[in-house]
Structures are given as C-alpha cells and as structure tokens.
C-alpha cells in the first residue's frame, strides 16, 4: 500500500532510470544491441525490482505514463549515442500487455519518435507469449501496424508460455529470446537442451533471429554457439548497467 502510493510520485520525483544490458554477437563478440531495463530507486528502500513494482504499476494504471517515459528516455539516449559518433545499435524495450490495450498506443509512439528523431528500425519491442495469446486480436492488429512502421518485435521469455507457431510467421515476428530458465539448465538438463535446440531450429526455419538470455558461463555460451544461436545476453558479458556506463562500454568497442 505504501509502495503503491510512493509509485505515484516516483515519476515526478525522478526516481526512475534506465539500465542497459548489451546484446552480443557470438561470432564477433560485438555489441549489436541493448535491452533497456527500468530501475526504481525508492528514497527509503533503495532499488526495488521491476518484478515487484511493474505489477503495482499495472494495477494502478501508472504503467502507461511510466512506459511512455521509458520509451522517450530510451530514444533520447539513443540519439545522444549516435550524436557522439557511436555505432548505431538496436535497442529493445519491454512492453506490458496493458500498453497494447490503449487505443492511442501507436500515436503515442509516433509522437515520441518524432520528438526524439528516433529511427523506428532501431527499436525492438519485447512482448511475452502470454501477451500475444491472451489478447490476440488487439495485440496482433497493433503488431501489424508497428511492423509497417519498421519497428521490430521480439518474443521475450520464449518457451515459458504457449505460442502458436503460425502467428510467428503471419506477423513477421523478428526475434525469439530463449528464456533464461532454460539457458541456466544447459548443458546438464536434457529437457532444457532439447527445448533450446528446438527453438533455435524453429527460428532458423522461419528466418527469425534468436537470442539466448541469461548466459552466465562459458559452457552455456559454447553450447548455444554450437547449436547455431547467434546472439546472447547475460552476466557472462555484462549485467544491466546505468546509461553512463553502457556508453563507455559502447565507446570502447568502436
Ligand atoms: O531487469 P530485471 O531482471 O530486474 O527485470 C525483471 C522483469 O521486469 C523482466 O521480466 C523485465 O522484462 C521487466 N521489465 C524491466 N523493465 C521493464 C519495462 O520498462 N517495462 C516493462 N513492462 N517491464 C520491464
Ligand atoms: O524477462 P526479461 O528477459 O525481460 O528479464 C530481463 C532481466 O534478466 C534483467 O532484469 C536482468 O537483470 C536479468 N538477467 C539478465 N542476464 C542475466 C543473467 O545472466 N543471469 C540472471 N540471473 N539474470 C539475468
Ligand atoms: Mn526482456
Ligand atoms: Na526473458
């Protein structure tokens, strides 16, 4: 209850920030993208996990202004990176199901891109399988329009929900992100290895990019690489870091 009230004041008190986790090409070791992850620093309790406050933000409807702030902040950072001469990388932003139920979502995105001069081709929106499957028609109609604008779509936490393979193709989904619970269990757990391999093969046959998430060990990296996974994220390379640190990381790679 107190957290819920504090959340109402968090935006105007500038308690939110964005951390970035690099996405790495397994062959070149280059940073080819970044996932934007929201952080809330509570004045008393310090950092509170999004797994705790995102559900509160969804219950209260605050998720909409907060998510709009996230997207605009990410676009502003991205413009600054380009202006200071760094490689143009793709940035991924997590979207909540509630955003897709907003009638003005697309116009809001267009307004943000216009204000920040963001190239839609360099934004990827991450949604979970359950977002798509629970709100099928609304979400799919919106995805179609996002795709038409050039925005890329990734299915996050892939393997944890129920996906219909037909929609992956029909809506030209760009990327599957294998959930880190499976990566954590490879190569020891046979089921996780099989699911990971099946997902990689599915992605290859549909022409989708594939990202292994939560890679923490060299053994996991090698297993993924040998199975044909081209892109990874995880603590082995970097945890999510504040924007100023991510900028340094990007600069060192140029
Ligand atoms: O960064 P961390 O592992 O603490 O994130 C926990 C969860 O919070 C992840 O599932 C992630 O997708 C989600 N999350 C992080 N940032 C955002 C955001 O900006 N919007 C939404 N909707 N979810 C986010
Ligand atoms: O559900 P989603 O993929 O959006 O979750 C992103 C979250 O995963 C980030 O908040 C980040 O903190 C966490 N994460 C990223 N890499 C690793 C990793 O290698 N190990 C663990 N345990 N968590 C990770
Ligand atoms: Mn994600
Ligand atoms: Na995930």
TrEMBL record:
Residues covered by the EAL domain: 1-254
UniProt protein name: PAS domain S-box protein
Lineage start: Bacteria, Bacillati, Bacillota, Bacilli, Bacillales
Part of the full-length chain shown: 801 to 1054 of 1059
């Amino acid at each position: 209850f107190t957290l819920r009230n504090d959340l109402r004041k968090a935006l105007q008190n500038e308690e939110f920030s964005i951390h970035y986790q690099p996405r790495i090409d397994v062959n070149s070791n280059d940073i080819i993208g970044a996932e934007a992850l929201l952080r809330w620093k509570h004045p008393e309790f310090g950092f509170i996990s999004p797994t705790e406050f995102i559900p509160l933000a969804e219950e209260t409807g605050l998720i909409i202004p907060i998510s709009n702030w996230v997207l605009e902040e990410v676009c502003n950072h991205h413009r600054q990176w380009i202006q200071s001469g760094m490689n143009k990388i793709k940035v991924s932003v997590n979207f909540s199901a509630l955003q897709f139920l907003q009638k003005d979502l697309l116009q809001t995105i267009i307004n943000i891109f216009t204000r920040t001069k963001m190239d839609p081709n360099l934004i990827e929106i991450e949604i979970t399988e359950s977002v798509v499957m629970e709100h099928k028609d609304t979400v799919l109609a919106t995805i179609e329009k996002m795709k038409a604008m050039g925005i890329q779509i990734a299915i996050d936490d892939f393997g944890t929900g129920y996906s219909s393979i037909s929609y992956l193709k029909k809506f030209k989904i760009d990327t599957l992100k294998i959930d880190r619970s499976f990566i954590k269990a490879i190569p020891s757990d046979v089921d996780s290895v099989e699911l990971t391999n099946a997902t990689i093969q599915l992605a290859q046959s549909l022409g989708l990019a594939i990202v292994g998430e939560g890679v923490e060990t060299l053994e996991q990296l090698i297993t993924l690489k040998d199975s044909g996974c081209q892109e990874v994220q995880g603590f082995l390379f970097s945890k999510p870091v504040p924007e100023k640190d991510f900028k340094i990381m990007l600069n060192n790679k140029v």
